[in-house]
């Protein structure tokens, strides 16, 4: 590396002020590029219209805006998916580790099929094939499809978490005459959870992001509402920035919450 | 003549192609203290782990307190509740306090209430001389204290038989005695014990019967008086000379 660069690199690692300036400069250039580019295109910024998309005041009454409605659907979708995903993941992981040959085959088959086909294709398959057969609506089609997709990853996280618990723990549980279910519940799972928590958070964050895909089957989630607003108002820059910001806010709060959980668990030791 | 509480008949155990136990037959009477020794890899651990089915034997017959060990899970669980086991690596539950370590199995497997289980737990913690550590986590204790907790945890199930697999091998020398003292006391109280150990001083004090194993077979069974002074087999002699020389 040239000497100037190396010096610059060291300074940016050592000095906080320098790093801050560097960061602000970078962000400044980014914002300038966007704004300048938009102006060149003759884009009319209408940020003042964005708050109405959350809450709208009309003749002294307040109405829920479209992005808020979409956000609510996305949150509901995420809520159901997280719960069901953990359940599917746990069951699959237990099946894979069981002694039952058919259970193992079932779990492995599911994992291979789901992980090796595109999510979008799975969603179409659910929407056009399984949902009409089962008679479920768009929302639940989205929930079920995402659950099976993310569940396959969660299953592997749970399995490796459980298998990382020392074999001696199983033996100690066996030796005092505990049943398998009790060993899982009181000995193995509590020790596996702190190990599984970071990758599980990553997976749940993925789930929030992947949930945007349900907009292709017209579930009225945040992404769909964003697209609809743009179709009516042509504010594509502002709306997509806002929508991305909302997803970012959800995923960041999730990771902060989990960090807090981890620290609390570490303190209670 | 007293009926044996543990009975092994022609027990064989394979790990894949490797045969770890060859035709092991052996009896333990109620209240008998058996010390098992032998070179590394001779099958000592495998033998005692077959007694509470941590390992599954491939042929032969194992009967504990009148219950034959088969595939039947209920039988296995009832045997395990009668047989306590102490491991070389302690295997305490690190996420539970000492007291919680002790009450878990009595509450779940013996269906005791928490108050009853805690009362028993405190009694046994007194016996292993660490009642003041009840609310600590295993990682906060010394190795010797952890092993005594492990002994107390087994005793809380009120077992008829205790198995020890090299209980002092993972301990620093200054902690070995505190664990052996607890075991000697247990022996004095009449517990049926099978102890795998190389602590020959302990063996001489406690054992009714010495068992020497080599290459997956029981080579010699004798009371300590004859075992240490006039072993019949050459291999026993060689082993003893090696182990007693340092
Ligand atoms: N799970 C296993 N899989 C394969 N081989 C095993 C397994 N457990 C033990 N063995 C083999 O069986 C033989 C007997 O092992 P065992 O642990 O019973 O010996 P040991 O007498 O207890 O020895 P040590 O004094 O080292 O503890 C060894 O050769 C060992 O390598
Ligand atoms: Mg061993």
Number of strands of chain B: 10
What structural category arises from helix and sheet content of chain A? mainly alpha
Q: What ligands are attached or bound here?
A: adenosine-5'-triphosphate, magnesium ion
Count of strand segments of chain A: 2
Share of helical residues of chain B: 25-40%
Mean pLDDT of chain A: 91
Over the alpha carbons, how many angstroms does the gyration radius of chain B reach? 18 Å
What's the structural domain tally of chain A? Answer: 2
Question: Main sheet of chain B, how many strands, which sense, barrel?
Answer: 6 strands, mixed
Output the helix-strand order of chain A: HHEEHHHHHHHH
Q: What would the principal axes of the Cα set say about the shape of chain A? A: globular
CATH-defined superfamily of the largest domain in chain A:
MetI-like
Poorly predicted regions of chain B = none
**Alpha-carbon Rg of chain A, integer:** 24 Å
CATH topology description of the largest domain in chain A: MetI-like fold
- How is the largest sheet of chain B built, in terms of strand order? 6-7-8-3-9-10
- What oligomerization state is this entry in? heterodimer
The amount of beta strand of chain A, in percent, is under 5%
Count of discrete alpha- or pi-helical segments spanning 4 or more residues of chain A:
10
């Amino acid at each position: 590396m040239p000497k100037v660069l190396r010096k610059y690199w060291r300074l940016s690692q050592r000095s906080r002020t320098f790093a801050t300036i560097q960061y602000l400069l970078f962000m400044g250039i980014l914002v300038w590029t966007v704004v300048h580019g938009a102006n060149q295109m003759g884009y009319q910024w209408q940020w003042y219209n964005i708050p109405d998309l959350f809450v709208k005041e009309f003749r002294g009454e307040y109405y829920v805006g479209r992005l808020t409605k979409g956000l609510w659907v996305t949150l509901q979708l995420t809520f159901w998916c997280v719960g069901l995903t953990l359940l599917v993941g746990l069951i699959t992981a237990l099946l894979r580790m069981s002694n039952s040959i058919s259970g193992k085959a079932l779990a492995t088959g599911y994992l291979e099929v789901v992980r090796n086909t595109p999510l979008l294709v799975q969603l179409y398959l659910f929407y056009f094939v399984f949902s009409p057969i089962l008679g479920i609506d768009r929302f639940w089609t989205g929930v079920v499809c995402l659950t099976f997709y993310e569940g396959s990853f969660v299953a592997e996280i749970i399995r490796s978490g459980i298998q990382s618990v020392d074999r001696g723990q199983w033996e100690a549980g066996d030796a005092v005459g505990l049943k398998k279910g009790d060993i899982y519940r009181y000995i193995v799972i509590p020790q596996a959870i702190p190990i599984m928590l970071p990758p599980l958070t990553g997976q749940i964050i993925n789930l929030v992001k992947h949930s945007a895909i349900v907009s292709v089957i017209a579930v009225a989630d945040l992404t769909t509402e964003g697209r609809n607003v743009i179709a009516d108002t042509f504010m594509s820059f502002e709306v997509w920035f806002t929508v991305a910001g909302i997803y970012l806010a959800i995923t960041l709060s999730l990771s902060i919450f989990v960090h807090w959980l981890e620290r609390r668990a570490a303190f209670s030791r | 003549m007293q009926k044996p509480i543990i009975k092994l008949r022609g027990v064989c155990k394979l790990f894949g192609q490797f045969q770890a136990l060859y035709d092991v037959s052996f009896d333990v009477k109620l209240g008998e203290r058996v010390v098992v020794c032998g070179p590394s890899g001779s099958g000592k651990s495998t033998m005692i782990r077959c007694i509470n089915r941590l390992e599954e034997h491939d042929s032969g017959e194992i009967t504990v307190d009148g219950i034959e060990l088969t595939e039947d899970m209920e039988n296995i669980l009832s045997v395990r509740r009668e047989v306590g086991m102490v491991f070389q690596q302690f295997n305490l539950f690190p996420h539970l306090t000492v007291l919680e370590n002790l009450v878990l199995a009595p509450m779940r497997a013996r269906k005791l209430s928490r108050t009853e289980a805690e009362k028993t737990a405190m009694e046994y913690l007194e016996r292993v001389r660490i009642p003041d550590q009840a609310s600590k986590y295993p990682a906060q204790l010394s190795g010797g204290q952890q092993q005594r907790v492990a002994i107390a945890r087994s005793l809380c199930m009120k077992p008829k038989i205790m198995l020890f697999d090299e209980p002092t091998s993972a301990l620093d020398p200054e902690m070995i005695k505190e664990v052996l003292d607890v075991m000697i006391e247990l022996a004095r109280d009449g517990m049926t014990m099978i102890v795998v150990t190389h602590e020959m001083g302990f063996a001489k004090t406690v054992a009714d019967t010495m068992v020497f194993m080599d290459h997956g077979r029981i080579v010699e069974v004798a009371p300590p008086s004859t075992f240490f002074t006039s072993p019949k087999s050459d291999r026993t002699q060689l082993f003893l000379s090696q182990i007693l020389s340092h």
